[in-house]
Amino acid sequence: MTAVPLPHTLIGHGPHHVIAVHGWFADRGAYERMLPDLDLDAFTYAFVDLRGYGEARDLPGRHTTTEGGADLLATADALGWDRFSLIGHSMGGCIVQRVLTLAPERVRRLVGIAPVPASGVPMPPEQWELFAGAADLPENRAAIIDITTSGVRPRAWVARMLAQSLGRSDVKAFRAWLDSWALEDFHEEIAGLPLPVRVFVCELDQALTGEFLRGTWLRHYPNATAVDLPATGHYPMEESPLQLISAIEEFLGEDDGEG
Question: Which of 125, 153, 156, 160 is 20 to 30 Å from the Cα of 190, by its Cα?
């Protein structure tokens, strides 16, 4: 299937171009709480909707990380961006790495927020049943939100996150994406790439733990560093947006010899 530019929100006028990709549970609205406080003089951000989500909810596709990576490149091309940095949350962290298998020379820096590694996410049978059933069962989605925030968030917040997930994703696409980001392993294609990488580890996330992320991301990339986000679950854009913005933009703003 032909790669296509993805629907997106474009903000900022800075020289450093950044594409941000949402996770499995949300569309680009996942980043809404960050938008008012981004540095729009230093950066230009494009927040995209993957196929099956938001404005791309009815866009047909295979819903694979490979397809998603190609669509991100098509989006950069449509924006006229030759070089750019990438931010990926959760599933989006896996998808942005696919860009590195297609055009590594175009990526300046890579940020993973509670990110799925290129080696996938092995799950025991009961966990797989929970995740696989989340497409059709709202109670499964709610349980996953609860588990990945250690059960400490208000019930109303969990309900709001659930409603957003149900309202902004296509059921069939949601289920198809799981097979790709959880089961595929392409880490040998990206292992050893020298670009700067920053991984955000969320203390309350019981699924993508610090041990798991350090054992994958930090082993895959020689120039990767991890930042711990205390008292934060799987959704730091919601739970600690200001802390996240500061740490991301500090990393992206480090001198790499480009304007």
Answer: 125
